[in-house]
Fold this sequence. Notes:
The structure is a homodimer.
Chain A lengths: L1 H27 L6 H8 L3 H8 L2 H29 L6 H12 L7 H12 L4 H25 L6 H21 L6 H12 L4
The first copy, chain A, binds a DNA duplex (30 and 30 nucleotides) through α1 and α3.
Amino acid sequence: MTQTRAHRRLERPREQVLVAALEMIADQGLARVTMASLARRLGTSGGHLLYYFGTRNHLLLETLRWSEKGFADQRRPIVDSAEQQRKNQQGVEAMLAFAKVYLPVGDRDPRWLLWLELWARAPHDPELIAAQHGLDEEWHADLVRLLSSALPDLRDPQGTSTRLRAMWDGFAMAIVTGGGLATRGQALEHTRSLLAPQY
Amino acid sequence: MTQTRAHRRLERPREQVLVAALEMIADQGLARVTMASLARRLGTSGGHLLYYFGTRNHLLLETLRWSEKGFADQRRPIVDSAEQQRKNQQGVEAMLAFAKVYLPVGDRDPRWLLWLELWARAPHDPELIAAQHGLDEEWHADLVRLLSSALPDLRDPQGTSTRLRAMWDGFAMAIVTGGGLATRGQALEHTRSLLAPQY
DNA sequence: GCGCGAAGTTGAATGTCGTTCAAACTTGTA
DNA sequence: TACAAGTTTGAACGACATTCAACTTCGCGC
Lengths: 199, 199
């Protein structure tokens, strides 16, 4: 099969490209990841990358998707373990563990730099909007499951998930744009506050 | 004075450029606002715009600043009126009025399209980071004043302001990237929920 | 082995940008 | 009226993403 042959030789190199892209984004910023520079780093040509990915935007979107796949694997055990416990004494702690996966590791977090780029380009672009929805939806589904089991007294898990993710997105942006506007630690503390408000 | 003469002839045309930029952003998107197309619309040349604004990024940043100035005028009466009332029965309503100024009017809101662009470009760029901080700080200061007077029982106005703005940023992004991921009305309802949580 | 079609790969060409800059043009003023 | 300072233009430049025609490699049936 042509498909088989193509894919046999493709899978690994494809990952190599995505890994290299993430690394370059992390230490040089998105703007400096050009077709030419990325190709040079991989010992190939810019035209070749476009042969596989079609456009630079597709390549970056693939990179984000691949990155997100890894984070899906990280959050799943948190959700699963919360669902298996009957009495959940550590509900808020499970939430914080989930938040730690969601939030950027620091400024320069390549995954979040890609998110900011996606947000900026998505308006007026149906394909990017759809991609954004898809990725968001996965987080939402898992977060609702976690909220339902970790904090079963919560009135509206759906709405709380939406509020939490909106706030996390805001903090993630602040963390990743840098300048100390917000830190990961502060974002986690604010998560605690939002979940256990006392006026 | 050279300065005087230059500015006498500059003030109005400068505003015309910013208005035209906002209009073009609203109906064509940021990417299609090029030096050449913006200049053509204004009956001038691309080189001329750069003579005044230095770079495209500066022009866009000026546009955002000028846009924000208008919104500062809109939120001030809300804060002032809340501070003048002793007993604040309508505390939450004042907050929603403030949120209505903060949030985008719809997708295509040019101010928020500029914010998304700023977020995407700010990492690795000290000047943009500083600009972002400055604008954020103004919203924060007014919001803390409003929270202190509109909801005086609130334990931590500073922290609540930070959480609210983070959430609003997240919703604003979702509204402006479009596709119905979030609406202005939903964002306002979530604001109500965050301020008056009941588990 | 051999040949042949399909897939992979390259780098030069193309078009669109933002930006630079030397030249031409205005304006205020002495 | 002349001159210096400020303004305006558009051609030229460099950096891009993207296209594409040519070339190479690969897999497979004979």
